[in-house]
Known about the structure:
By secondary structure, this protein is mainly α. The protein has seven helices and two strands, in the order αββαααααα. The protein has helices at about 10-30, 45-65, 65-90, 100-110, 110-140, 145-175, 185-220; strands spanning about 35, 40-45. A two-stranded antiparallel ribbon has the order 1-2. It is globular, with a radius of gyration of 20 Å. The termini are close together. The model is unreliable at about 225-230 (pLDDT under 50).
Amino acid sequence: MSKLKHISKQSYLTAVTSFFIAGSVLQNILAVKSFGTETTAITTGGTLISWAVFASMDIITEVWGKKRAVTTFTVSAIFNLAFNLICWIAILLPGTSDFIAEAYKTVLGTGWRIAVASVLAFWLGNYVNAAIMHTMRRRSKNVESRIGFEARAVTSTLLGQIVDNSLFYIIAFSPLGISGTVENSWITIIQLVCFTTIIETVVEGVVSPVTARFVGKIKKADDEKSPEPTI
């Protein structure tokens, strides 16, 4: 049997990028369900994975740089648009079950406001996240410090998520009186922005030590040569 090779930096990039793109699509699907009470909106199902999506972007920015990060979340935004388009086509095609068709439409048939809000907020939020991460890293006296990385990750996530959540909820659900769209009160929107941002930032802070170790492992892989497989 051949020995397992060390994981290369390129393999890490492929894995993290794949998770980022898949996670960005999944968080939009999960965002259909909201959590809270009749009077207080706390967050949506997308929060269950959105913190991990931002953490992935922190890893890409930290290891491969801002340019790679911008390319990654731009491709992901395009992929999300394509995903929504395919879902709309599937909804329009006749089905064999009205029950399944309605359920499918409810979960995946996001309106044009939600689709536009999702892509725009996602792109700008990730840009802010990557730009802050990159700037803080460039100004850091010790870029290899785990504590420094954790500070960059939490700060960039906080500001990036404020932009992301604010744009998404305002564009998608603000009470503008547009017929055929789902709208919420400004109080509900403010609650969702505040609670979601706080939750995502706190979770990012909790998992940042683990993320920092993972980043260190990837950086170490740079200097490791993959051994030739033996039979």
